[in-house]
Each structure stands twice: as structure tokens, then as C-alpha cells.
Amino acid sequence: MSQLEPFLAFSAEVTAFPIVELQGTGQAESYLQTVEDIVGTQRLDRLLVLYQSLPLATREDIRQARADRLRRDIFGSDELGPIARNIIKLWYSGTWYELPSAWTEAYGPAPQDVTFVVAPSSYVEGLLWTAIGAHPAGAKAPGYASWQWPPHIPPFAGDPAATPR
Amino acid sequence: MISSIKKTSLAEIKARLEQHPIEAVIVGTGISGAIIANELTKAGKNVLLLEAGPGTNLTLQGYNEFLSNFYGATSKDNQAPYPVNPNASMPRSTNLRKLQPGETDSATYMVQSGPYVTDTNYTRVYGGTTMHWEAKTPRMLPEDFKSQTLFGQGVDWPLGYDDLEEFYQVAEREIGVSADVEDQSYLGVTFPKDYVYPMKGLPLSYLDQQVAKRLDGTEVELYGQRYPLKIRPFPQGRNGIPNDKYDRGQGYVPVGAVSNHQIEIGERCQGNTNCVPICPVQARYHSGKTLAKAFQRATGSIHLLVQAVASRVVIDPVSGRVTALEVKVYKDPKSSEHETVTIAATIFVLASNAIETPRLMLASGLRSSSGLIGRNLMDHSYLLSWATMPEICGTMRGTSVTGGIIDLRGGAFRRHQAAFSVDIHNDGWGWAVGSPYSDLTTLVDQYNLFGPELRRGLINRISSQLLLAFMIEVMPSESNRVTVDPQYTDQLGNMRPVVSFTVPEYTMRGAAYAREFARTVFARVGAADQSRYDPGDYGYVAYNGQGYAIRGGNHLAGTHVMGNDRNRSVVDTNQRSWDHPNLYLVGGGSMPTIGTANVTLTLAALCYRSARSMLDQLQ
Amino acid sequence: MDSSDITTLEELKSYLYSAMQLEHATLPPYLVALYSIKPGTNLDATQIIRVVAVEEMLHLTFAANLLNAIGGEPDLTVPGFVPNFPTYLPDGEQEFLVHLAPFSRQTIENFLQIERPSLAPSGVNKLVARREHGPFLHLGTHPRQTTMRYYSIGDFYKAIEDGLVYLEGEAQKQGKTIFTGDAGRQITSQYYYSGGGHLHPVTDLATAVTAIRLVIEQGEGQTATIYDSQKELAHYYRFDQLIHGRYYRSGDAIEHPTGEPVSVDWDAAYPVKTDVKLADIPAGSELHQAAAAFNQAYARFLAEITEAYNGKPHKLMEAVAHMFEFRNAMTVLIRNPLPGSNGLYAGPTFEVSPEAAGAPQAGAESLEVVA
């Protein structure tokens, strides 16, 4: 069974980008492969199984409980936290960041764990720039003179700054 | 534009040398070499161009490989697109470290002998440093040519603004400058009546406008004089909207991308925010555009030899004339295997840059009778100040820089402290702290944000970034210099440049004021100052109890300074060597001072002027 | 010129409207093929298709300039302006279907058909009876006699050129001109330029004929030479390079390019479902929303272009900026698997209805300014 589906579901929640946009980067498979290659399939499986066991957020109070569990059990885990954070950074910048040395000492070695850009296209598809209504330097240019206008910052679900309608 | 540029093989060059004497050998394919090659071939001269790099970017595919290298690079520094080449190495900022007093760092190609460590750099590929230049093209101010007379600082030029004005126009045409005369007429800069730039000015960024609406019309006081402030657009060497009034109503046709194929890309600037280190669509000028014209016109009388590193200038001891150039032609960047060829010509033009040209001269044992080869090295000193704007300003969009403050480029205060020009960086705090990557790692790893809080956090933190880059003038000083040392050589056995540099006190006074000025600007626009200078920074300079991280500007100049007196200069006003009558040292190195103008436009103008003299000599 | 098909100014206007429709209709297929190419692959093909697409925009703008020059009002928001793909184009005795399809050999062959230079051989009637093909749009149809169509696009444009010459000749006889349009409505290079041709204003017969010939030469060329008068390769030969795997160079014979090799990887493209429709995408899904939002954005783009062509040339700059934005929206759609389609991918559907253009819906706020 491919891990792509739960990987995308987890990625969507922690990046605040819908799956359609994650798929739209064309990087989903290569990011999943990158994580599996570096930290091992089993460890990633554990993260995703844990993620799938979180309470479903159907009501506001449960939403909070889910976020708390996500923070405590995954981001707060010495073993899984750095991986979860690296998955976010992958989507946002296309870069795999070398894991903290404390992680490597405890759970390593991970021979391929160096900072690198997954592929030239991963940089181009970094979500960091989509989020801020800009474009990665050197790619996806917005057109002559577009810089003179205010940025178009795309709205997103759950934006803490969004005014309630 | 289709270019018919072909590399010529060494065997073919050798065969040609026997039949067709070369009239001019030009070392380097940057803007100086390109302009001179173009001018000489226009007059039907037989030209050989030497390029140290492999010239892979002659094709669009090769150019795109540079872009792909950039995309895939972990560090997006100036050299990120350009492959490491041990046979024609380049300085690189990522390899630097702070020096202890008296220490020399030879771990990088350009040996740093301190005390200041400069991250200035240049590119040794086809197209030279115009491959990664930002393409800001201000003219020097009339007062910049007379700084000794007017301010008791530096030296006066042997030429004045009026001598260069017509050549500025030619250079602006060649580079394809986008600007409006009304924005650029200040501090004594004048244009002929009815002059317009080839293309209309690029609009200010939204970020510029947010700063301008609070800052414009305010003043600062300096040594008893008041200076009004205004955010103005910079002239830029990139394609904008052609001005139909140009050339007495003839208009201007921009040059798009150049390639060996029938491919017309490279329209007007699309706002890639990546002028440095590579424009993906070739909207920004690079010297390949000028060379394409030369090759298109003069196939047969211009030849390009790549992977050819000029290694020694051979002199006839009696006449002082250059008899030949020794060139090491390597087979592969990875291997030191090479063949040394000796090339004779009527005139020789060294157009590498203000580090490599004196390096070659010194490596050839030619110190010049003035002793000034390699001395008076100049580069603008940059001080960065950065802050958070009170609202979202859409940072990370536009050309690298669209606007800034030029009001303190000139004035009576220059008697006391260096002038500066201020850039508003559209790419945020990138230069200072590595934004936006550093923002991402900070918010994720340190602030423990994820999900919508992270996404909003990134918007708020990045889109409101303001970075002011102060480009501070540096006056000539003989102790700031390039030398060579036989113990430091590269893979081909060529001696590497050794740089000794101290940021002059005059500049540091300007830097200290720049810091104060930044605080004033931030106060007026309501921005939160975030600047900090780490004493461990390689460019850290202490001055009057404060510390500043000073960056290099890649505006290299001064190392073969021009003048009217052969005892106090290396070249004459035509950039011809006083000692060697058939040798020209061209480029920024000839500039006696640099004021607060990015050097390329001025050195391009000088090259047009010198080309006339070369043609006279070749008659 | 007595044989001109066009005998009134109103007819000429409807021909020019059809010309705009025709030039525009090639854009969606070219863009889908272009953006279906997997990133980092097929660099030559990417450049070739991109340049052709940019030139189609140029041709569209020329058609608008021509229409404006004779006092017309270009309108790209008329229902039915955008074809419901596939659409028919004439190719001699036959008509053929133009599809929204991913980059492939077949797709490039389809593009070659679009750009194939051909004129009705002498003796053959350049008007051909249309066959009934159901609901799809037939480009190149005779605007008045809707049961007839032109033998080729070249013939269609030739009819326009003849009509311009004929009508202006008639007007001149009475001391008048048909070029009565407001010069301020002309789009010039100031607002739009590319490497592929200089955009000049159309103000009289000479500039009108230059414009129409440039469109013919670059595009659905009628000339037997590979290079046009601006020394550029006509579109047909640009695409032909992909089939032959070689660039043309000057002096080459037709169908025999001898330049440097062009590397093509036909498999390195997302397998977008051909002529995908909104109805193919599960209703209510994120993907459906994204596809609908794209159509709305496209409709707004056409409205902006229309505004630019109607006296506000500077608006073209904003419209082009929005074009860059929806380029990103297109790639997102193209890289998403289409559920229940056996491995095919989604894509932009270009179903542009007036409703879609008007009512702001969920996705519309993506252009909202937060500042």
C-alpha cells in the first residue's frame, strides 16, 4: 500500500496547503521518496499511523484537541518531531535540511542526511512563495510591472488573520 | 536574436595564425572585451577573443543549465549558477572566514591577506561578470570627477563628465537602459536637450511606494546643509518599454535572448527578482548580446577561443612593446592538462577585470614604471540595515532593486565623509540573513509553528521585510591592492590574486552615518529595526566603538589607474599602457575614483572612447 | 478585386472577429501541451511551443488592431468566443479536430495540421461546403454563408486581405477611407512585445496589409519558404523540428532540417485527459473547485483583454500579469491525477461561460488583495 495518501494528508494539515495544491507541485512522490530514503520507511510509517489515529476534527473543541495531540505526539516527539518539521520545510522550500545532530546521535546514522535541494524543480515549486503571493527568485515570474501593485496573497482555510464572515 | 557565435578550435586558431595575422587579441568576454571586439570588427579588424571559461552558455541550452544549477543549489549566492572550474577559479562568498590580525587565508581562490575580508566577486565564464550583474546603470556625478579639487579627497580624473557624456549615451544604447531622464537629472547630472533613454523607466515596486509615501519630502541635515529625500527609480540595464522618442523618434528595438538556435525568448523584464545571479529570460543585458552582434556582422574576422587562460604577457625589453601573449588552453575543467600557445598580434587588450588584469600583469613581472599596477584597489563598501515594515508590502517581487535614495550621492559633506547611494532591496533580508529560507527555518524549528499559524507567520514576516543597502564610496589608497605570490597558484600553475584591503576611515565615517540615517528612515516609515552585526562576521569592522558588517560590492576598480602623468598612472586616458605602447588595460581598473555609481556604465563608456584610439593605432 | 468575398464593412468586421476567434483558439491547446511537459524535461520543445503561443497572442492583438482600425469593437467575452474543445479547423478538403491534449507526438502532429501552409490550388474553389459535425465550433467558416468554410486558414486570411484592399479602394474613390478607427485604441510594442515580431499600429491600408501578411507568414503560412520576411521560422517549421528531431537552419529544404539535434522525450509529460471537462471531475472536490476557479480566472482575463483592446491599452500589462498567475493555476491542474480515469490527469477545461466570468465564487477571492 502506497504511503502517498497519508503522506499527502499529513502534509496538507501541517503546511496548510490543500492536497490539490500539494499534488499540483508535481513533487509529492519525490518528497515521499526523499523522506523514506533518509529516515527509513518504518519510521515514516510510524509517524503516519500516529497521525491517522488523531481524533477527527468535526467540531471546534475537537479541532483544538487534535492540534494539541499533533503538537504533543508528533512535533513534540524527539524522534518524529524533526522529521515532521523537515517535511514542512521540504514542501515550503524544496530543500531537505540536515537533521539536528541530537537526532542523528539518538536515531542515526542516516547516511544521506545532508542539506540538499531535492531537484531543480522542487525549488521552483516551493510553497513558501505561493504563500506570500510572490514567486521563487528566478522562476514563475509574475510579469512586467506587476511588482508595482499590492501582492495577491492567496486566502487559505484557518488563516488566523482572516476576518470571520 | 540568433547568434552565429562558434567556438573556434585551437587547431584552427593555430592554422589561421599562420595565414591571417591577428590585429587585436582581447582577453575576456565581459562587457569591456565585448564592446571593444564589436567596435573593432565594425571597422573590419581581425580579432581573437580569449575566454577562460568553457563557453557552454553560448547555446540557450547551456544558459538554461546555469539556471538549473541555480535552482538546484543549496546556497543561492552570486556564483551558484556557475560550475566550479579549477582552471579558471572565481572568488566565492560562501567560502570566507574572519581573519585574525596578520593572518592570510589562502583556502579560497582569491587569497585574503586582510585585515578586511572582502566577499567581492566576479565571474569567469563567457559573458564575464555581466552574467551575474544586477545591471543598475547610474552615471557618475560631474562632481565625482573632481573629488580632490572639490573635497580634498581621492584624486581628480583626467577626464570630466562632459568628456564622457557622449560615450555614456553610446553605452546606454548598447546596454539597453530603461530609465526616464526626469528621474535621473539630479546633483548636476545633465543630458542633452531631447535625450531620452532607450527604454522607459521601470516602475517602482509596491514596497518602494510604501516607503516613499512616508519618506518623500522629509529632509536630513548634514554639516549644516539640508538634503531633501525622495525615493527614485534607478536606471536599469534590462528590457522595459521601448521609448518611441528615442534616437529622434526612431525608437529602440530591445535585444532579447541570444542563442545559436532560432529561439526568440527574452522579452521585457518579467520580474523574476533574480537579476543577480542570473536572469532566466535574458531580459537583463549581458555582454553575449554585444558579442552576438559582432559575430553576426563579422563572421570570419572574429574568433573565440574558450578554455584559454592568458598566463603571461611577453615584452620586447628594448621597445617595451608586447610581442605575444602566452595562453594555457586546457582540455577539461577537471584536469590540469593543457597546451601553452603563444599568440602574436598588433595590439593586446586585457579586459579581464580589476583583479585578474593586474594579476596577469604582475604574474608577468610587469609592475609598471609608476609601480601602481595592482594598487588603489577600490570596490564599494556596502552596509546593510534591515527592518520590518508596519504592513504587508509584497516584498520578494520586482527586479532585485527598483528604487532607492540618491540624495546623498553628492554634496559638500564629502569633504568629511563618504557619500552613499541607498538601495531598497525587493528581495527582503536575503542579502543580510538569508531570507526567506532563514525565516522558514526560524518559524518551523524555533517558533514551533505549523499549519495555518505557520503560513500566516511566513506572510507577516517575509512580506513586510525592508532592507536598505548603503553603497558607500571608497577612495583610492595605494595600500589597498592586488599582488601575486608564487606560493599561491591554481591548478594550471597560474599565480592567484592576493588581496590586501583596509576599509578607509573616510568610508567608515560614511558607514557610521549610514547606520544613523537608516534609523532615521525606519523611524519615519514606522519600521522595526532588526539589524545586527555579528563580531564573528568575516566582514566585521569596528569603528568609533561600534561594529559594522561591511560587504563587498563587486564594483572592482583602480588597479591600473588612468592619468595624464606616466609616473602617477598606469594607462593614459585611452587606457593605453604608458610602458607598453601596444597594450591596453581596460575596464574598471582604469577608473581613478568610483564615486557612488555602479562601475559598469562608466567603464563601458571608457571602452567606447578607447576603441577609437585602438582603431587609430591599427590604421 | 471584384472577386472579393467581402463587400461591406460589416462583413469585414465579422471576418476580423472570426480571425480573433481563430487566433485565440490555438492558445488553449498550445498552453495545455506546453504545461503538461514535466519540469526539467523537453527544454527544446518547451521553448518552441512557448514562442509559438506568444506569437499567437501577437496575432490575436494584430487582429484586434485591424478591427479597431476600421472602427470595430473587439469583444472576447461574447458567448461562444472560446471554443468548447475539440474544435474544427479546415485543412483543405477535410476538416480536422483540434484537441486540448498533453504533449505527445500526436499532439504536435495536430499542431502541424493547424499551422500547415496551404492555399486552395488554382482551379479549386476556396470555399468548401461544411460538413455537419454536431455542436463544435468550426473555425474558418464563412461568416455569412455559415454552411461554407474556407479551404484553408490561408485562404481565409487572403479573403480578409482582398476585402481590405477592395473596400479601401471603393472608399478612396469617394474620397473616404475605411480606416476611421481611433488611433488611441491601437496596441503597440509599448504595451506588448516579444522576440517574435514588432507590433505596429494599423492606421491605413499599408499597415493593415503588413499586419495581415505577418500573421499569415508566421502562422498558417502560405509561403513556400521556411523563413518569413523577418527571417523567422514559420510556426509549422518550428513544430516540424520536434518531429524531425533537428533544428532548421537557413538554406535547409522543407522537411529536411539539418541544424543541431533537438532532443525530445515524448513520454515526459503528464497524461492529461484529452478535452477534459468539468463534468469529468468529481463535483465538490478540491480539484473541481480549482478547475472552476481557473475557468473564472480565464474569463476575467478575456474581459481584461477586451478592455485593453477597447481604448485602454495599458490594461494589457495587467492582463499579462494575470496570465502569468493562471499559468501557475494550469500547472496545478495538470499535475493532479484525475480520479477514476485509469491514471490520466486533470487539466484546465477552458469552459468559459458568461456566468463563470461574472459571479465571484469560492476561488475568485484568490485575487483578493491582502495588504
Q: What features would you describe in this structure?
A:
The complex is a heterotrimer of chains A (165), B (619) and C (371). With 165 residues, chain A is mostly helical. Chain A contains 9 helices and 2 strands. Chain A has a two-stranded antiparallel ribbon. The longest helix of chain A has 16 residues, at 60-75. Chain A is globular. Chain B has 15 helices and 23 strands. The two termini of chain B are 32 Å apart. The mean pLDDT of chain B is 95. In chain C, strands 1-2 form a two-stranded antiparallel sheet. Chain C has a two-stranded antiparallel sheet with strand order 3-4. Chains in contact: A-B, A-C, B-C. Chains A and B meet through helix 1, helix 5, helix 6, strand 2 and helix 8 of A and helix 3, helix 12 and helix 13 of B.
List the helices and strands and how they pair.
The complex is a heterotrimer of chains A (165), B (619) and C (371).
Chain A: H1 4-15, H2 19-24, H3 28-39, H4 41-52, H5 60-75, H6 81-93, E1 95-96, H7 101-107, E2 116-117, H8 120-124, H9 127-131
Antiparallel strand pairs in A: 1-2
Chain B: H1 10-19, E1 24-27, H2 31-42, E2 47-50, H3 60-72, E3 111-115, H4 147-151, H5 161-175, H6 181-184, E4 199-200, H7 206-215, E5 219-222, E6 225-228, E7 231-233, E8 241-242, H8 246-249, H9 287-297, E9 302-305, E10 308-315, E11 322-330, E12 338-343, E13 347-350, H10 356-363, E14 381-388, E15 401-405, E16 420-425, H11 430-433, H12 437-446, H13 451-462, E17 465-472, E18 481-483, E19 498-501, H14 505-525, E20 528-529, E21 540-543, E22 546-552, E23 583-585, H15 599-618
Parallel strand pairs in B: 1-2, 1-13, 2-9, 3-19, 13-23
Antiparallel strand pairs in B: 4-8, 5-6, 7-15, 10-11, 11-12, 14-17, 14-20, 14-22, 15-16, 16-17, 18-19, 21-22
Helix pairs in contact in B: 2-9, 2-15, 5-15, 12-13
Chain C: H1 9-25, H2 27-36, H3 43-69, E1 87-91, E2 94-98, H4 105-115, E3 127-129, E4 148-150, H5 153-173, H6 205-218, H7 235-244, H8 286-309, H9 315-334, H10 354-358
Antiparallel strand pairs in C: 1-2, 3-4
Helix pairs in contact in C: 1-3, 1-5, 2-3, 2-9, 3-6, 3-7, 4-7, 5-6, 8-9
